[in-house]
Amino acid sequence: MTRLLGGLPPWAQVLVLLVLVGLAVVVGRRKRRTGAKPRSRSGGARATIVPRGEARSPMREPDTDESPGQTGAAATRDLDAREIGRLSISYSPRIDGDPDPGEVVWTWVPYVEHNGEGKDRPVLIIARIDDETFAACYLTTKEHRGFISIGSGGWDSQGRESFLSPDRILRVHRDGMRREGQVLAEDRFARAAGAIAARYGLEL
Domains in the chain: how many in total? Predict the structure, then answer.
């Protein structure tokens, strides 16, 4: 290249260099258009824009199934005063896939407004009603007046302190349980059970 340019007058050398630079810029642009995906400033690949009318493959299939305990015969519901009066609170946890008294499990809990809405929550099973159903109180990480602290446990991924609401006692069906949780220590269960029994005039 040096020999080739050396035989040209200075103005021609400048012209050749400008042409070569222009060609390099054009080739570089074409490579970026047809080559690898551009990188974002953070180092990650940018999202691909899907043209209108083309289907985008979802990251995961949408979960259209209802939560266990949400509807049907296995739906979680509030116990009435007559049902609560017949409860016998006990502590008999067994890690066997069933919601036994003394265990924290997850189920659908309807909102107190009974407007058809609710959410998955951890609940503490406090009594057995029959072979298929159990009595439970829901847990929350927000402290409210009259709620009972049961400490922290594996049912909360962040290890936060949990509080039991004694104002609602729920019926949880065996088939309405989403997953089995952790056994609550007997002394903490006894503290919660004592408060619930006093609230409803139940015997322990």
Answer: 2
